[in-house]
Amino acid sequence: MQLKLTAWILGALMFGTAIAGVFGKPTRLTVNAITLETDVPKQFGEWTEVDEQSGQLINPETKELLKTLYSQLLSRTYVNKQGYRIMLSAAYGDDQRGGLQAHRPEVCYPAQGFKVNSLQDGAMPTSFGNIDVRRLTTTKGARDEPVTYWLTVGDHVIRNKVDKRLMEFRLALTGQIPDGLLFRISSIDKEPERAFTMQQQFVADLMGAVPTETRRQLSGLGALPGAT
Q1: Which CA distances in Å does 149 have to 27, 64, 185, 228?
Q2: pLDDT tens by residue, 41-88
């Protein structure tokens, strides 16, 4: 029953998007697009970028695919004062319609030889509100890599296909082409609980270090609750 309802909702949204396209075909991209290289700080809180790409495993085929899906790619490794490392991979696409859709880690990690051992949706708390995230534990040989990520369309985090269609419909009505962001962080760590705790701290520190508009573009979060 649930599957039928979801299919019906998706069908209705697709039809609505098509109608919106007929009467108001999107002619411009969403405004104020983020620039990952400059808008994501290289140093914030206790975290500092290090010149280290050895942990970022991206095979050539996957890298070429990402270039076709996204207009901006950012890969960095950060370390805190205790020496804990977080790998950040952010990908921004200025057109997320049709085939140009976010490349989810539960798809691209197995393509690179990883095994996905667990997958769970949850909320990541920050001072500015919660971010709807997905957490994975993955392994490749002796390498254990817990992963946290989220996806946005426009400046809203999306959890599923229904969320995505709703945002596409809203943007189509205003003549905008949906842009989108995949924000992924991971750690090489055999203790998932510790890894997810450190990743949560990393995100909380980052959200507190960037301006309101950048925060909204990265995560859908705005100003502090109650702030004017």
Answers
A1: 30, 21, 6, 29
A2: 999 999 999 986 555 655 555 666 676 778 899 999 999 999 999 999
Angle CA 78–80–84, to nearest 5: 80
- Distance of alpha carbon 103 from alpha carbon 126, whole angstroms: 25
Report pLDDT digits (tens) over 127-144.
Answer: 999 999 999 999 999 999
- The pTM for the full model equals 0.79
Among 76, 92, 21, smallest CA distance to 44 is for 76
Under DSSP, is residue 119 helix (H, G, I), strand (E, B) or coil? strand
Distance of CA 122 to the CA centre of its chain: 14
8 A C-beta contact, residue 216 and residue 155: yes
Query: 210: burial class by Cβ within 10 Å (0-12, 13-18, 19+)?
Result: middle
Residue 28 CA, distance from chain mean position? 22
Residue 159's nearest CA partner among 104, 109, 92 is 104
